[in-house]
Amino acid sequence: MAEDWSRYWRAGERPIEAMHAHFERHVYHRHSHDTYSFGVTESGAQAFTCRGGAHTSAAGMVMAFNPDDPHDGHAADALGFTYRIVHLGPDLVAEALADATGRRAPLPLFAAPVVADTDLAGALRAFHRALLADAGTTTSLRRDELLAATVARIARAAATRPPPAPPARPRRSAAVAARARRLLHDRLLDDPTAEDLARAAGGSRFAVYRAFRAEYGLSPSDYQRQLRLRHARTLIARGVPIGEAAVAAGFADQSHLTRWFTRCYGLTPGAWREAAAL
Which Gene3D superfamilies match (predicted)? Predict the structure, then answer.
C-alpha cells in the first residue's frame, strides 16, 4: 500500500498556493478556504460533500470551489487518489479576468463543484506543474501568463450564474447567525460558550446553531477553529515561530495546531512554512 504524501508550494507575497498529493488514509475535516480552489484528480477518486450534496471527482475531473465553500474529502476507495490543487486569492482572480482596460468583471461563481472537462484538466495540470514541479525553471512572466490563461479558461468553461435561490430564510434567522458570527470574529482568542452566542445573537442555543449552519455551512465551533487556523497561517507567514503562533491564534499548543492544520489542509504547519517560494 502506498504511503500518503504531499508537496506544497506557496508564493511569498501573492495569494497563490499549490499542492500535489496522494491520500489513502487522510480524511479532510470540513473546512473552507478564503480563496478560489481549483483541483484536478490525476488517479483514483476523491469523495466529498459540498453545498448540501455528495460529489465524487474521478481521474481527469476538475474541482472548483468558491471562496468560503465548506467541504470535506476522503478517498472513495482503498486505492486512494492523487490530485493537484491551486488556491488563488479572489483579487488575483479578478485581476486575471480584467479586460484590456483593466476594468474588472464580477467575480465568477462556480455552481458545480465537479466539472468533467479533459481539456480544462490538462490546462490546470500544466499551470500547476509550472508552479510546483517546474518552479525553479519557469519564469515569473510565464507563470503569470499561465495563471491568466488558466483562470480565464476555467471561468469560461465552468463559471455559471447562481442557481435559482432557495426560499429565503427568515430575516431573523439570518440576523441571528450574523450576530453569532460577529461575536466569533470579535472574540477570536476567547472561549465563548453556547450561552454567550445565544445572548449575543438573541436566540436559544439550538436556534443559533441551526441558523449558523444554515447560513454558513459550518457549525460555530468549526467556524471558530477555521478563523484561528487562518490567523495562525498569517502569523507563520510573518515568521512567528509555530509554537508561538499556535498560542497567539488560540490553540492550546503547537501539537494542537498541528493536528487541526493537518486535518484541514493536508500538511503540517512546518511543511506549509517551508513551502514558501524564494
Answer: Homeodomain-like (1.10.10.60)
> Smallest Cα–Cα separation from 120: which of 151, 161, 81?
151
**Cell 470574529 found at:** 185
DSSP secondary structure letters along 97-157: H--TT-PPPPPP----SEEE-HHHHHHHHHHHHHHTTTTTTS-HHHHHHHHHHHHHHHHHH
Q: Which domains does the chain have, with CATH numbers?
A: 5-158 (2.60.120.280), 218-278 (1.10.10.60)
The size of the chain, in residues, is: 278
